[in-house]
Amino acid sequence: MATVPLLSDDDLDPRAKAVFDDIRATRGTDFVNNFWRALAHQPEVLEATWGRLKQVMGPGALDPLTKEMIYVAVSVANGCSYCIHSHTASARAKGMTAQMQGELLAVIGMAHETNGLVTALQVPVDEEFQA
Amino acid sequence: MATVPLLSDDDLDPRAKAVFDDIRATRGTDFVNNFWRALAHQPEVLEATWGRLKQVMGPGALDPLTKEMIYVAVSVANGCSYCIHSHTASARAKGMTAQMQGELLAVIGMAHETNGLVTALQVPVDEEFQA
Amino acid sequence: MATVPLLSDDDLDPRAKAVFDDIRATRGTDFVNNFWRALAHQPEVLEATWGRLKQVMGPGALDPLTKEMIYVAVSVANGCSYCIHSHTASARAKGMTAQMQGELLAVIGMAHETNGLVTALQVPVDEEFQA
Amino acid sequence: MATVPLLSDDDLDPRAKAVFDDIRATRGTDFVNNFWRALAHQPEVLEATWGRLKQVMGPGALDPLTKEMIYVAVSVANGCSYCIHSHTASARAKGMTAQMQGELLAVIGMAHETNGLVTALQVPVDEEFQA
Amino acid sequence: MATVPLLSDDDLDPRAKAVFDDIRATRGTDFVNNFWRALAHQPEVLEATWGRLKQVMGPGALDPLTKEMIYVAVSVANGCSYCIHSHTASARAKGMTAQMQGELLAVIGMAHETNGLVTALQVPVDEEFQA
Amino acid sequence: MATVPLLSDDDLDPRAKAVFDDIRATRGTDFVNNFWRALAHQPEVLEATWGRLKQVMGPGALDPLTKEMIYVAVSVANGCSYCIHSHTASARAKGMTAQMQGELLAVIGMAHETNGLVTALQVPVDEEFQA
Lengths: 131, 131, 131, 131, 131, 131
Prior knowledge:
Chains A, B, C, D, E, F: One of its GO terms (molecular function) is peroxiredoxin activity. With 131 residues, chain A is mainly alpha-helical.
């Protein structure tokens, strides 16, 4: 259970409703996931978060699928179960194949391992990396 | 300072030396960074780690640059300073532009923020994400 | 499921029972939550933890509600779901309004974002902060 | 060293310069700390981050000092050394006394301990916390 | 739910089947837990992970039970619920008594607390620890 | 630099001095490390922390060296550099050999890797682990 009630469409104030409308229009689906329904109690945080997400996750020098996989990787390291499920689903919707997911998984596992080894060893940063 | 001495080339046992030779040949440079010099005390761990890294980070369904950026993202979330420096340097060497680094940064910041929000709100996973 | 059985009141040894009595007297309720029932197998850890908690979370230079919100913030960053639920409930019981919860949420989200950005950028500490 | 060069005032593009001007005006000091100088390469991220920070950390249902202490608590749990230094300095500037800092410290230590215990025990959330 | 389907014995390709056979032979039980069933989609990652685990967790200068308790401690700090359950079960199977589990718990709690205090205080490393 | 001044022996109040005396007597050395000097501003936290540490880390069902290695493992996962240095030094003083340190390292690396894999895969806990 969430620490706040999840708002249904009928519970939204006008500012939150406008954000939900934009989420639906941008994504081309009527489905609005629970994260936004939980944030909807704070229209200001909802607006700021959706506004930034739309901008940050859109196409740029990095393509949207690459961005989703980076998002999954951060969410795994932070142990955010909801975020792992939602961004894995988004990555799949944007074209992540089983082979790509397998390689993403392998990089995540490898990075966690060497992060642990490096931290245990307290390895000093090479001068070559600081140029 | 590291929690173990960093081995110079003259201190390596034959098994560790063979790994260092392969690192140099694979990367096309004489430079071997401190992580491997710290691991060199445990030739078995050194071999296994380098062997896996070479395989995991090579080209596949995901290109090596994408993999480096995912590595950076995990390392940031795990707070591994050495890993951030070394894999940012690797990503640059593999073609990460300033614009790409800026977008990587923006995704990392965004993911951390929503990870925190979702966790604070304890949002339940939507059924739609579990199909 | 917990990794140890949760003890009911009938299962307690005298030392654990004394702690439960003090929890009930201090809080003015018969309800003893699962955390203490799981710790009750280790009366020494139970005593030490409750003793410290009672002292640390009481009124001082910081009021108990502020302390609960700080507790929630730490628990979010550490991803402790149980702790988020229990200390959010405590904060509400001590007067946290929906508006205060919304601002707490916004600070938590913001702090996670800039923690991620600062770590990715490896920003050196300004001398001005070290005085 | 940072993973990007820190920009001096002479290196700023107009958009970044406008943010620096606002930071100076808002804080009433000429000092602009390294975090903003590192972010200045990405004027869009700089603008969004400063804009949100100014809004989130200002007075509301929670006072600015309480918000700074919550910020410190998150930064400790995330292990962000720069953030701990900068927000501890901000909290002091906003009136945090040595006694308050000591209590903040005690709550942070306590929360980390019980987060660890609860996670090790995998305590199930009491129904009473989910109302 | 997992982010990949869990493979039953009938779904395995020959390489994954060989790993499952070795897991069963090594552990002397027909039971193969969900972690391996989730990894089985990536036979290469499955092989590498099982191969390393078998080697790393076997007897050496540290006995297998000590290794399991260290594994639990890392899993708690990383907030990996599945890992806490599976390695607590393994530790019990290898002889961890209730008294040992209680002391493991106390060390984990203590370490989390002082990790938080030290990080909040940003204590500089004593020269004496760097020899 | 620490976020509080480190107290020298001459700066201690009587309560803190008594703790320092006990640290010296217990450890059989005049050396008191920086952690205690930073905590000394809060005699109550200092007393409680030292009192618990002395009790928790002493001999019991687990020997002191095993406890130190568990402490190191938690500190690595939490990224506490000071704690890694101090408890690695303690473990060495209590008899950790290079071979033992190497195996500790290998378990830490392995646990981090599988923690990451399990979390990315969101593996559900087997019923067999919940008995």
